[in-house]
Amino acid sequence: MPDIGYLFKKYRQYLFYFLALLVLGWGFTPYKTIFLGLILGTTVSFINLWLLYKKTIKFSEAILNGKKAYSLGMLSRFAYAGLAILIAIKFPNYFNIIATVIGLLASTGVIFGEYFLMFITKRNQEER
């Protein structure tokens, strides 16, 4: 299994590319609210992924040192997602609510996509 730091760097790279595409979509299409909602949701999704990465490192260090390990910060990540939804509800002229919710799932989609690519490449290497 790859190192968590290596995986986070790959996920970060994919999310930045996706955010760049969203900014281009916001700038060059008439669907401003949809793209701003996707940008808001994807940004919060990236922040949540970063928080999970940091908490996972602290959690694993605590386990290795024999200390108590508390949580991975689910409440704070839910709070960030709730804040993004509240911003989208408060400013519907700027942010599409459905696009914000879809953007919140961006890091999960990147993780599943990367896992699928790793699975396919590993299977193709075994067939050779």
Automatic annotation (TrEMBL):
It is found in: Cell membrane. It is a multi-pass membrane protein. The keyword Cell membrane applies. InterPro entries: ATP_synth_I, ATP_synth_I_Bacilli. Keywords: Cell membrane, Membrane, Transmembrane, Transmembrane helix. Signal peptide: none annotated. Pfam families: ATP-synt_I. The chain crosses the membrane at residues 12-28, 34-53, 74-91, 97-120. This is ATP synthase subunit I. It comes from Pallidibacillus pasinlerensis.
